[in-house]
Amino acid sequence: MRLSTINYYFREAFQSVLRNSWLSVASIGVVAVSLLILGSSLLLVLNANSIAANLESSVEISLFLKEETSSDEIEALEKEIKAMPEVTEVKFVSKAQALEEMKKNFGDKQDILTGLEEKNPLPDALRIKTSVVDQVAPLAYQLESFDAVDQVRYGQGVVEKLLALSKWVRTAGLVTMVLLGIAAVFLIATTIRLSVFARRKEVGIMKMLGATNWFVRFPFLLEGMFLGLTGSLLAVVAVYYGYLSLIGSIELSLPFIQLISDRSLLVPLVESLLGLGLVIGVAGSMISLRKFLNT
Amino acid sequence: MIQLYNVTKTYDNGVKALSDVTLRIHKGEFVFLVGPSGAGKSTLTKLLSREELPSRGQVILDGKSLIRMRPGEVPYLRRKIGMVFQDFRLLPQKTVFENVAFALEVIGASKKDIHKSVPKVLSMVGLPDKAGVFPNHLSGGEQQRVSIARALVNNPFLIIADEPTGNLDPETSWDLMKLLLDINLRGTTVIMATHACDIVDALKKRVLELTGGKLVRDEKEGAYRCEA
Q1: CB distance B89–A208 less than 8 Å?
Q2: Which residues of B touch A16 (CB under 8 A)?
Q3: Is A8 in contact with B78 (Cβ distance < 8 A)?
Q4: How far is B226 from chain A (nearest CA, A)?
Q5: Which residue in the set B75, B83, B154 is minimally distant from A212, CB to CB?
Q6: CA–CA gap between residue A279 and residue A7 (Å, rounded)
Q7: CA B214/CA B223 separation, integer angstroms
C-alpha cells in the first residue's frame, strides 16, 4: 500500500469525524459510558469474588468440647476428624489459648478479663477447615453427633448468603457487560451509517471513478476504530482514577475491606477495555459497511 | 469494441427500460444517443459502466463480458471509462485540482503521478489557471470542463457523457462539444446521450435513437430531426 493512500485514509477518516462532530462526540460518549459501566461492573465482580474468596477461606467450624473430655479422647477425636475427606485442617485450641485470643480481641479493654485465668469458663475447642464451603453445613451436622462434642458453631446462613451474592454479582455483571457491548456496537454502526449517508455523493463519485470496495470502506472503518478507541480511552481514564480514589477513601474509612489494587490485575483490565473499544468500533463499522457498497 | 446482443432490462419495479437492443460501437467512434426522456438512454449508459446488469442478453466491452465479470473486477473496468454527467458531480469541498486528483487518489496513484497528470489535463480542457479554485466559484461550463478533466485523467478508452450540456447555455455547450470532439480525435470513443437537437444535427455523427426501450434508428451521419 502506498504512503499517499494511507495518508488519504487517515485524512478522510478524521475529516469525517470532524465533519460529523456532534455525532462523533455522541458515539464516543456512548462507547465511553458503556465501557465505564462495563469496567466498573468488572471491578465490582472481581472485588466481590476476592472478598468472597477471603471470607470463604476464613469460614471454619468451631467444635466446643464437653468439660470432662480427657486429652486422650481429644487426640483420638482430632485424628478421626482429620481422616474425613472434606476436612483440610484441624486445630486444637485449649481453653487457655482461647482466653488469650479473647484478650487480644478486647485490646486495651482486656482488664475486664483479669482473674478469669483461675476459673476459665471457656471450653476446649477444635477448629476445622474444609476444602469447599458447600460442605460446611453437612459436616457441622455430622460432627454434632460425637459424644465429646458439646456445641458446634459455624457461620450458619452467612456462608450460604455470601455464595448466593457472589454468584448473583457474577451473573448480573456478565449480563450487563454483554448487553452494553451489543448496545455500543449498534450505536457505532448507526454513527457510521449516518457518516456514510452524509458522504453518499462522494462515495458515488469514488465508485464511478473505479475505487475498489475496500478503498471506499477503509476510511469508514478507521473512523469506527477511532470512535471506539477514543471512547474506551475516556472510560479507562475514568475507571482507573475513579477506582484509585475509591481505594484511597475506603482504606481510610473501611480498613477491613480489602480491594484489589495490584497492577497485575488492573493492567489487563485496562488493556482489555481498550481492546474491546477497538473491537466495538470495528464491529460497528463492519455492520454498516457489509450491506453497503456491493456493486 | 462495444457489443450489445438482445439486451433487455426490466427493473425490479417492473419498468421495462430496454427491450431487445442489439448494437455495436467501434473504437474511436463518436455516437449520439437520442430519444425522449425515459426511452432508456441512461439505462444503456448504466449497463456499460456496469451499474446495472441486463435482465437478458449480453454486453461485451473491450472483449469482456460484463455479465460474467466478477464484482471485484468492476472497479478496474470503471478506471478505463470516463463518466460525465449533466450535474457535473464535483465535490464542493475540494478545489479543481483536488477534484481531478481524486480520480487518481482513488486508484492509489503516487503524489508524483498526480502532480504530473493533473496540470496536463487541466490545460487540455482549457482551465490551466483554475487549479486552486473551488467548483462553486466556476461557471457551469467551467465546472463541466473540470468533470471532463477528471474523466480524462486516467486515459480512458471510452467516455460516456450523459446529457453533458443539459445545464449549459447554447454558446457554452458548443465550446464543450469542441472539447469532446477534440478528445474523440485523439482516439477515445465517445458516447453522448443528449436532447440537444441543434448539436446532433450540426455535427452529423452516428445517431442511435431509443424510443420506449427499443432501438428505433441507427444512422451514420444522422440528425436528431427536431420536430418541436
Answers
A1: yes
A2: none
A3: no
A4: 32
A5: B75
A6: 23
A7: 18
The pLDDT score that the predictor gives to residue A115 is 74
- Chain B's closest residue to A207, CA to CA, is B75
CATH 3.30.70.3040 spans which residues of chain A?
60-154
Judged by a CB distance cut-off of 8 A, whether residue A1 touches chain B is: yes
Mean pLDDT of A77-89: 80
Determine the Cα–Cα distance for residues A279 and A276; give it in Å rounded to an integer: 5
Say if the Cβ atoms of A207 and B75 lie within 8 Å: yes
Binary contact (B106, A202; C-beta < 8 A): no
**Ranges assigned E (strand) in chain B:** 2-10, 16-25, 30-34, 56-61, 64-65, 81-85, 158-162, 189-193, 206-211, 214-219
Cα separation of A17 and A23, whole Å? Answer: 8
Residue A208 and residue B78: Cβ atoms within 8 Å?
yes
Mean pLDDT of A121-150: 78
Interface test with chain A among B74, B77, B84, B105, by most A beta carbons within 10 Å: B105
Using the structure block, give the residue that is written with the C-alpha cell 487541466. B122
Fold that domain A60-154 belongs to in CATH: Alpha-Beta Plaits (3.30.70)
Q: Each residue of B120-134: pLDDT tens digit?
A: 999 999 999 999 999
Which ipTM did the prediction report? 0.87
A160-182 pLDDT, tens digit per residue, is 676 677 678 778 777 877 787 78
A 10 A CB-CB count for A165 gives 13
Per-residue model confidence as pLDDT tens digits over B19-51: 999 999 999 999 999 999 889 999 999 999 999
Across all residues in chain A, what is the average pLDDT? 79
Closest to B64 measured CA to CA, from B52, B55, B53, B77? B77
Alpha helices in B111-205, H assignment, sequence order: 111-124, 140-152, 170-185, 197-203
CA distance B97 to A136: 81
B90 is written with which cell numbers?
Answer: 464535483
Query: Phi, psi at residue B159, to the nearest 5°?
Result: -110, 125
Q: How many beta-carbon contacts under 8 Å exist across A and B?
A: 59
Q: Would you say residue B228 has pLDDT above 60?
A: no
- Which residues in chain A have their CB less than 8 angstroms from residue B91's CB? 201-202, 205
Do A205 and B102 lie within an 8 Å CB cutoff? Answer: yes
Cell of B100: 481531478
Q: Structural domains in chain B?
A: 1-80+156-221 (3.40.50.300), 83-155 (no CATH)
